Each structure stands twice: as C-alpha cells, then as structure tokens.
Amino acid sequence: MTYLLFVLGLVALFFGGEYLVRGATAIAKHFRLSPMVIGLTIVGFGTSAPEMLVSVQAALAGQPAIAIGNVLGSNIANILLILGLSALIAPLIIPVRKLWRDLGFMLLASAVIWVMLLDGNVTRLDGALLMAGLLIFLIVAFLTGKAEDDDAASGDMPQWKAWAMTLGGLVVLVIGARLLVDSSTEIARALGISEAVIGLTIVAVGTSLPELATSVIAAIRKQTEIAVGNIVGSNIFNIFGILGTTALIAPIPSEARFAAIDMPWVAGSAIGLTVLAFVLGGLPRIAGVILLVTYAGYVALIGS
C-alpha cells in the first residue's frame, strides 16, 4: 500500500505541475512578459511548487533531512539530469545576453546556502535573508523582462480557464506532496536507507518531474528560453524561496553531510552550467551526455 501511495503521489505531482505551468504561462502571456521571464519566474517557480510543499511539510513533520535533501537534490537533478536529457533531445542555445544576471543569482544563491549550512542550522534569520534575496531577484527580473513586440506571444487561453488550471494544479500538488512525504519516509525506514539519501534522490527527482516535463517539451519545440529559464528560475526559487519559507516557519537543523558532500555538487553543477553558457553558448548533445553520466556518478556516490 505504501508503494502505491508513493506512485500516486508522483502522478499527482506530475499532472498538478503540468496544469499549474500551463495556466500560469497563459496568465504571464496575458501580461506580455517575455519567454525568458516566463521561464525564470512563472514556469520556474510553478514547477518548484512540489519542492516547496514537500520541504515545508517535511520540516513541520520533523523530517529536516528530507526538507534540505529535497532542495539540494532537485537543484543537482535540474541541471545534470533534466538539462542533460533536454540537450540530448535537442541542443540547447543559452542566450547569455538575457541570462547572465540570472546565472549570477543562481551562483549567489548556491554560495549563500552553503555558508548557512556550515553551522548545522538554517535559522529564521537565515530564512528572512533568503526571502530578501528572492524579492530582489523578482524585482530585477520583472523590471528588465517586459517582452519586446517580436518576443511576446498573446495567450489563446481565456483568463478564467488559466486561473482555474493554475489553482486546480496547486490543489493536486498539495495532495501529491503529502502522499510523497509520508510514503517515502516509510519506505526509507523499511529499507534502512537514511532520510537524507531518500530526499536527495527519490523525492528530489519525483518533485522535479514538472521541470522535467516542461524542459523536455520545450526542447522538442525549440523553445530554448523556456527550457533553460525554467531550470535556472527553479534553482533560484528552490534555495531562496523554498528553504527561506521553510526556515521562517520552522528552523531547519542540517546534517554535516549536506555541506561537506552535497553542496559541492550543487555549486559545481551551477558553475558548470554557467561556464558552458559563456564558453559554448549553450549545451550541445555531447554536453548532455556528459551531464547525464555525471548525474549517474553522483547517485552512485551517495547510494554507496
């Protein structure tokens, strides 16, 4: 029964995220935001809703390892697994002239949370600082992100339907997140696996399904700005928004392994993506293969 609830949770997260993204994107287009800003904010944050719900609920349930592991694991999977798979399907062009500031925010967020994890506790003050970082990012993104005439796309979905899909998707995500946290914790304990590893792998990948679906579909449709912006925006929101909100609700004690083992992978993947963006201007298929092989190595390392 536990495994069935786990699968149902993943399915709910996928479909809830899909409807949330479609509705939120239509709302954003109605207000004539550029595809890059849609990817960085509406889609990136929308697809991070499962991570938000899982981390908050895990922290409140006294499972801090899942709360932190979920965020760090999702950020690693977003770049290595999701962008790797997307680049394998269709080479991704990364528009550095539009994205350099946001790549910088992603690197800054990674550095800030690494420092916070070093003392073994993410406090309410830390949470407030993280939320301030999110607010600054949002202000910068929206002030510089109005669509140009040739860049904007008018939404063909009625606004009432867009809002209904957005709210309905959020409700389904809440249900899926609850099922996922409860069932994954039971599975971890039954198999003798630490909650940290479960949060870093199974839960992290499960809550990243909306990002996976969005970026892969965007890659197939040659919508590079949505595919890449979705991941960069999601990674920024995961740290500033999710851990910030979670710490404000309840301070999060952190295992030493997160700062020592997992944060180097979070920072390394963010730096790697930034270097590839500036040096190659994107992710060719060979880069996608390298990212996927690297992710397989990470999973093998933490699972050993």
From TrEMBL:
It is a multi-pass membrane protein. InterPro entries: K/Na/Ca-exchanger (IPR004481), NaCa_Exmemb (IPR004837), NCX_ion-bd_dom_sf (IPR044880). The chain crosses the membrane at residues 33-54, 66-93, 99-118, 125-143, 163-181, 226-250, 262-280, 286-303. Pfam families: Na_Ca_ex (PF01699). Keywords: Membrane, Transmembrane, Transmembrane helix. Residues 3-142, 162-301 form the Sodium/calcium exchanger membrane region domain. It is found in: Membrane. It comes from the Bacteria. The keyword Transmembrane applies. NCBIfam families: calcium/sodium antiporter. This is Calcium/sodium antiporter. It comes from Paragemmobacter ruber.
